[in-house]
Amino acid sequence: QVALVESGGGSVQAGGSLRLSCAISGLAISGYCLAWFRQAPGEEREGVASIDPFGFTKYADSVLGRFTISRDNTKKTLYLQMNSLKHEDTALYYCAAKPGGTCGLLSNDYNYWGQGSQVTVSS
After folding, report:
1. pLDDT score, position 101
2. Distance CA 100, CA 98 (A)
3. Tell me: the pLDDT tens digits for 10-19?
4. Which residues pair with 25 in a beta bridge?
5. The CA-based dihedral angle spanning residues 102, 39, 7, 35, taken in that order and rounded to the nearest 10 degrees
6. Contact 97, 29 (CB under 8 A)
7. Phi, psi values for residue 2, rounded to 5°
């Protein structure tokens, strides 16, 4: 049984930081692409960041320089460190996984999804 469970969301003021975690079970995650997506009300789902089995990362332009994706294969956990948060970062954040290959930010490429964790950034 594959499960991805997000945690660490919450409410912060603009300029603050949060770290999201995604605990993954049922997958040999060392061979998988892992990624974070987000969806704000009334908007399409957006790829935020991805990390491939070798640790190479990609970021959406909107978060580049502020967010850092990382993985701990031993702990079977994916992380998203979010710094300098902005109002426009407010969204439901999802972690996702797919078999290894090109690890992009296209949601249709990903097979497994968590249920989401809410991040709200206020002034």
Report:
1. 85
2. 6
3. 999 999 999 9
4. 3
5. 0
6. yes
7. -90, 135
Strand partners, 92: 39, 118
Distance, in Å, from the CA atom of 35 to the CA atom of 12, rounded to the nearest integer, reads: 22
Give dist(CA 43, CA 39) in Å, integer: 6
13 class by beta-carbon count within 10 Å (0-12 exposed, 13-18 middle, 19+ buried): exposed
Inter-residue contact 46 to 30 (CB < 8 Å):
no
Q: What is the pLDDT of residues 60-104, one digit of tens each?
A: 999 999 999 999 999 999 999 999 999 999 999 999 999 988 899
**Share above pLDDT 90 across residues of the chain, in percent, rounded to a whole number:** 97
